[in-house]
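To: structure subgroup
Subject: Chain for Friday's discussion

All,

I'm putting the inputs and outputs inline so they're searchable in the archive.
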Amino acid sequence: MKNKAGGSDGEGGSGSARRAKGSETPVDVLPKEVVLQMVKDRLARLSDEMGDKEEVAVEDDVLLAFTESTCAFINHLYARARDLCKQSGKKTVDADHVLDALKEINFPQFVRDLEAALEAFKEENAGEKSEEKATADECQKQDVQSSKDSQDAVEESSEETVASEE
């Protein structure tokens, strides 16, 4: 059975969204609310740049077009990044593969923004990781101390048992 995008339902063909068995909801699309928020944010920025303060409404069919085209872009980008990953002999797609893929599929204008976002992400996670490491180190110290305390208690108990037997 053909879907609107020309692919068969249930298949991951190009231009079509796979659908869960017995479901009308595509399983590989972004949440509608996320796409709507991205579109509205971008339209608001464009309106501000043009000096227009009026909010623009987004019709359902336009939202669907944005959603499907966004998914197609992400799938295309990931496919190229995965190919670059395999060519480099690695098994995990990393940020460099994605950035290189953007250049290769003719979207180099996104690279600078993504590099900045990646750097911010790394800095944010570095702070979290150092907090997690400090917490883990403290827990490990407590575990070591508890283990020593338990060992001391066992030794004392053994000494008392030996002393009472004599």
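Points worth raising on Friday:
The chain has four helices and no strands.
Residues 115 and 143 are 40 Å apart (CA to CA).

D.
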